[in-house]
Amino acid sequence: MSDAEKLAAIPLLPIKNAVLFPYMLMPLSVGRPSSVAAVERAMAGEEKRIVIVAQRDAGVDEPKQEDLFGVGTNSVIKKLGRRPDGAIEMVVQGIERVTLVKVTESRGALDARVQRLPFPQDTGDEVEALRRAVLEIAQQAIALTQVQAPEELARLILVHEDPTRMVYLLGSVLSLPVEKEQALLEASTRLEALRLMHEYLSHEVHVLALRNKIVSEAETEIGKEQREYMLRQQMRAIQQELGEQNPEQAETDQLRDRLAKADLPDEVRKQAERELKRVQKLPPAAPDYHVTRSYLELVSELPWRKRSPEVIDIALARAVLDEDHYDLREVKERILEQLGVLKMNPQAKAPILCFVGPPGTGKTSLGQSIARAMGRKFERMSLGGLHDEAELRGHRRTYIGAMPGRIIEAIRRAGVNNPLLMLDEVDKLGQDFRGDPASALLEVLDPEQNRNFHDNYLDLPFDLSKVFFITTANTFDTVPRPLLDRMEVLTLSGYSEEEKCEIARRYLIPRQSQDSGLTPAQFTITSDALRRVVERYTREAGLRQLERAIGRLAHKVALRFAERKTDPVTVQPDDLVEMLGPERFFLEQAREVLPPGVAVGLAWTETGGDVLYVEATLLPEGQGLTLTGHLGEVMQESAKAAHSYLWSHCDDLAIDRAQFRKSGVHVHVPAGAIPKDGPSAGVTMVSALASLFAGHAARKDTAMTGEITLSGLVLPIGGVKEKVLAARRAGLQRIILPKENAKDLREIPDDVRSGMEFVFVQHIKDVLAAAIPEMADRLTPAPVAG
Predict the structure, then answer these.
(1) Is residue 67 within 8 Å of 143, Cβ to Cβ?
(2) Angstrom distance (rounded) from CA 99 to CA 72
(3) How does strand 352-356 pair with strand 468-473?
(4) Per residue in 184-219, pLDDT tens?
(5) Checking CA distances to 492, which of 6, 98, 600, 667 falls within 20 to 30 Å?
(6) CA distances from 254 to 296, 300, 744 (A)
(7) Helix, strand, or coil here: 648?
(8) Catalytically annotated residues
(9) Nearest to 35, CA basis, from 60, 1, 4, 2
(10) What is the pLDDT of residues 154-167, one digit of tens each?
């Protein structure tokens, strides 16, 4: 290659997972746009030259110079063809080695300026010895490999006396990694190239020998299995002649006996007999043999007509429910009503109950108590995070590893067709490409449809109408409406401090004492200490944190007895800091004085109620209404409605109208990282804004909740019990409620209701008069519809 040729730009073709050696032919398929452009440019030249270089990383689709090896092969295109999709099929032949000097991009293709790299010409005895050693080991490798015409390949290698050409030929024949092929191409001496090839061939011979050994052993194993099969067939024939029973026949007879004792319905028995005849004809090695056998075992184990006897004793059931759970009057009465119906009419359909409430309120344990009260078997299955519909309905037997669904498996474990089946966390069902489990539950939880429930694996109708289904959820907002329509919702609200203390005395302390190995005499908690734990170490609607705190106290006492300190321990309030650490929660003492623009609201959450402070401030020379605190759309609309109402009723409320024109308003609800939404903050928004514009503070002991309208009406809201309990926990004794929510106070315990003051309102003016004392005199009573 002349200096002029060295400086000229030659088209460059990067290739993946291969190296082109000089003198060798290589077929290539070119599809990348830049590569096609490079080939087109090479074909346009007289010599049809193109430089071919291997990529360092095959995953790079648009390689640059740093992505390519530094040494490539100058080649000529011998043959070229075009495919309909635009790709090019061609055959190239290497000519000489070249070193990449510079790679540039021009008109969508890569060009290379290269420098010729001469072939090594070193000689000597060591080179000749290595050449002969490579020839010998190459013949061994050719003999071990499964290539066509190995004799011709061996002769072709012997023809080449030039060690370099022999190495290149072997490198193109062997399946070497691209790094090893590149090392052969870049070898600066014949001695280096022969040493590399000898090392590579030694490794290949070792690997090929191991492969042939494995293949030989596998063929021997197959021959052994065929021989064992023939022997089994002969043994079976001998057993038949002697009148003996083979193991497969014994298993089939055992299945037949189990099906006969299962008391199957007629339709099920016909299907089982068909499958049994089929399994008798199958050899034990057939894949369908074990599938069909597992299917028949499921059919024989399902309780098609077996049910647990029910001796319904209402008094006993009431005693069981009262023993296991404190309060929950509404839920207990509903269960007792259903027991009364079943006692009067045993053929009545079992109800579908849905317990909705915050975590830790006893939904799951209540299901166990109901099963004990009814004398039924109890089975529980969690639906949280379930995405695959086949988990409920099962997989068809055509799939490998098919299994029945969870519903049928639960019935199988129960052993009766009338258990109490609890479906936990129904509000956390998922949905993706594998189906919608909630849709599958529509059939399961419909008394009109579940008489003939079809599991995909079982493929036979199974009667679920006698199953007592109970579902649980933390909220029914995420439960699909068609599914919710099939269930009777019973709400389990949070507990008051008095209820928590009573539950702790009756259930939590004895249970934690027993779990810690303590007797009642060794571990006691005073009433004051227990109330302090409830108020200062837990803040929840349920009881889980409380039970953990009591468990920690029991563990501390158990450690003392384990260290041979045998004095009984009575936990006093002063001991709690040492045993449980600093108090985690405090009553809302930080807002002893509410400045103008702040009002106390009440919110409902999945974990119970919470106190919500709404803060508002004027922005001099600002405009409009700014809302912050991660508020949802409904809550934002409540703030806008409150602002608009006050602006339109400035004269009635004795508020300076100029403030609305000259100043903007910023409304913020603290705990800004927590999403908040709902219409019940409307009265709190209007009270905070009215307090701001009037310049008078709202009462610090008063919390409020209710939805507002632009005409000034206060509409009812939900979650009254949770909100009242939250206000009680925060030390607020006065609550403003919509008048239509007065009926909801019956859900609140008497001891909580008697210690609080409730103000019922119908109009925004009533709210402002009750919340801001200084505005009460200037407000005219709101008209009340007669």
Answers:
(1) no
(2) 6
(3) parallel
(4) 888 889 888 888 888 888 888 888 888 878 877 776
(5) 600
(6) 11, 11, 62
(7) helix
(8) 680, 723
(9) 60
(10) 666 666 678 888 88
